[in-house]
Amino acid sequence: MINSLPNKFPIILIILIALFTFWIDKTVRKPPKELEKNLQNNPDYIMENFSTYRVDHIREKHEKLLAEKMLHYVANDTTYFEQPRLINFKVDKPEMRVRADKANMSGEDDIHLNGNVKVVRYDAGGEETTMTTSYLHINRDDDISKTNKPTTIIQSNTIINTVGIEIDNNTQIIYLLSDVKFVHDKIR
Predict the structure, then answer these.
(1) How far is CA 40 from CA 33, 34, 44, 47, 138, in A?
(2) Which residues contact 159 (CB under 8 A, 6 or more apart)?
(3) Which 3 state secondary structure label does DSSP give 89?
(4) Confidence band (pLDDT; 50, 70, 90) for 13?
(5) Are 41 and 33 in contact (CB under 8 A)?
(6) In degrees rounded to 5, what are phi and psi of residue 103?
(7) Terminus of the chain with fewer CB atoms < 10 Å: N or C?
């Protein structure tokens, strides 16, 4: 029996190495479900100082989207922005600038802006209209922005408070939806 031990040593060594390798593989490798869950919860890419420029030659529309940080999640195909800014202008029409604390975009056309949303729009004479609210939904394809939240609009010497607005950037018309109150100051 002692004489056969040296003959069995390589087999015992191979079995021990195989067991050790199997044990290391199990302790290091994550189970597939945990791995899949982590992939869905983590962004598939992150960009800092993000900017993109979109041109629609048919409608003569130019749009620039900027953000301090952009995160895209593959699980729900949603993009999140920190400190987003959107500049929208058409040929022969004044531009509209929008900024917010955060935004998310699902697909190509719908942007939902949240926190300290500020819209600055200029009329044909260069007169500035400023709108502030806590939430704004922009449909980039229709060029219509909407909110059902309280909004303050300031234009030269007029202050308007309303609950809900709809901005049609095609016609340059702002619709006030409810609880409209305004103050017009001749001196301002």
Answers:
(1) 11, 10, 9, 18, 26
(2) 152, 153, 182, 183, 185
(3) strand
(4) confident
(5) no
(6) -155, 160
(7) N
Q: Which amino acid is it at 137?
A: H
Residue 4: its pLDDT value, please? 62
Take residue 120 and report the two structure tokens written for it.
Answer: 């600055």
- Mean pLDDT computed over 20-24: 80
188, pLDDT greater than 60: no
Strand ranges in 38-172 using DSSP code E only, listed in sequence order: 45-56, 61-73, 78-82, 85-90, 96-99, 102-106, 110-122, 128-139, 144-155, 158-168
Q: Which residues pair with 12 in a beta bridge?
A: none
- The pLDDT score that the predictor gives to residue 182 is 85
pLDDT per residue as tens digits for the range 93-127: 778 899 999 999 887 778 999 999 999 988 777 78
How long, in residues, is the chain? 188
Q: Tell me the DSSP string of 144-174.
A: EEEEEEEEEEEETTEEEEEEEEEEETTTTEE
